[in-house]
Amino acid sequence: MNDKQTNVSLFTAFVPIILLIALLTLNVIIWQDATLDGANQLALFFSAALASVIAIYKGVKWTDIRSRIVSTISDAMPSIIILLLIGSLSGTWLIGGIVPALVYYGLDILQPRIFLFATVIICAIVSLATGSSWSTIATLGIALIGIGTTIGISKPLVAGAIISGAYFGDKISPLSDTTNLAPAMAGTDLFTHVKYMLYTTVPTLIITLLIFLFMGFTLDLQDSTNDVNAVQTAIKNTFFISPILFIVPILLIIIIVKKTPPIPSLLIGTLLGAILSLIFQEDVIQQLSAGGEISFMNSYKIMMQAMYGNISVTTGNINVDSLFSTSGMSGMLNTVWLILAAMIFGGTMDAGGMLSKISSSILKVAKTTTSLIISTAFSCIFFNITASDQYISLVVPGKMYADIYKQQGLAPEVLSRTLEDSGTVTSVLIPWNTCGATQSGILGVSTLSYLPYCFFNIISPFMTMLFAVLKIKIRKIK
């Protein structure tokens, strides 16, 4: 970046962010939960336009701005492809009976009072095994949302428990990309990083579990026995339900554990779901077929529609019917639009030198160990908000602070832990961040609705800052 690109004042660098916050606030007031239908995307576009005007006024060429935008969009393309595949997987897993089977057996196992507590633990274990919060939420999370709704727990509350567990597992799993990225940026090894993270992560998880356990016993839940029985009967009468259907989720977990990249893994999971529907779900295919006739053309059409478009299975129970409908890839298009808009905004801010100006200003106030760690935490959150990407929130602060941590005699694992405690977990709390937009689209719950219940994600950055203030486990370089 040349001198012209960085020749902006701190106030000027914040102007597009101020506009973005103002527009997003106005959108929530007017559209409430429907902001992802287009209002937030336009807010990001308008803020990016203002950032472009400022950058050009300061001497940055439009071609440079455009190149940076293209580069940031290119970085987000794997996430977009994964998001579309998750949409197709949810479709084939519905008509293949996998999601209905998870709901059916889950209603037997997960009792209402401990449901939220158990949800956190289950999602944490699966995410730890697979190294992927996205895959956990896209598969197990969808079924848990259905189970929670059936027993009378609100979707945002269930979503908060799902996300809390999934991001705990993702955060400490050696298979996770962010768990490998953070120590690489800080200059430490993977297992030192994971071990050092446990000091802040385990207490945060314990607090989260206690909160959900308390909430489970204080929720005003009516006796749902009759409702549960009615739901299970409707599922059993519509789908072929058997433990054999779990072979696909188990195979998918094994594939991911074997370090198969997420894109081919999700594609394999999608195709296996379609195969299951052809083998076991003849009644479902007949119901969805034109004229109720099973043929090669009708079956092909249903498989394709489940992957790309709207599919609804009728069970005769209104509550169940609302659970068993999906929009496939097309249901993810608003989220893809949001991610593209966010990348345009982040790329424009970066090209104009506004992100680097804000970063350098933050570094000037980090004089002590405590202020340095707190500044790092807020920097990660800041980049999740402005750059709209989880990886940027780890890479940029990691590069910014690595030398300063060394100069202050701090071990690199202190930095890597702070990056994960503040960057990885808070990305899902930002509506226009790739993570927040994705999980909102998958679970069918707006980010601002589930945000208050993501206790693990909210507590994590405060825990790392508390450790800094109390000087607990702040390792020095020997």
Structure explained in plain terms:
The chain is mainly alpha-helical and 478 residues long. It folds into 2 domains: 3-78 and 332-470, no CATH class; 88-327, no CATH class. The chain is 76% helix and 1% strand. The chain is built from 24 helices and 2 strands. The chain has helices at 3-6, 10-31, 39-57, 62-95, 98-109, 115-130, 133-150, 155-172, 177-186, 190-218, 225-238, 247-257, 262-280, 282-288, 296-308, 318-323, 333-351, 354-364, 369-386, 390-407, 412-424, 434-443, 447-450, 455-470, and strands at residues 311-312, 325-326. It has a two-stranded antiparallel sheet. The radius of gyration is 23 Å and the shape is globular. The two termini are 36 Å apart.
Q: What is the mean predicted local confidence, pLDDT?
A: 85
Counted by DSSP, the helix tally is 24
Proportion of β residues? under 5%
Query: What pattern of helices and strands is seen along the backbone?
Result: HHHHHHHHHHHHHHHEHEHHHHHHHH
Oligomer: single chain
Radius of gyration: 23 Å
Count every beta strand, where a strand is a DSSP E run of 2 or more residues: 2
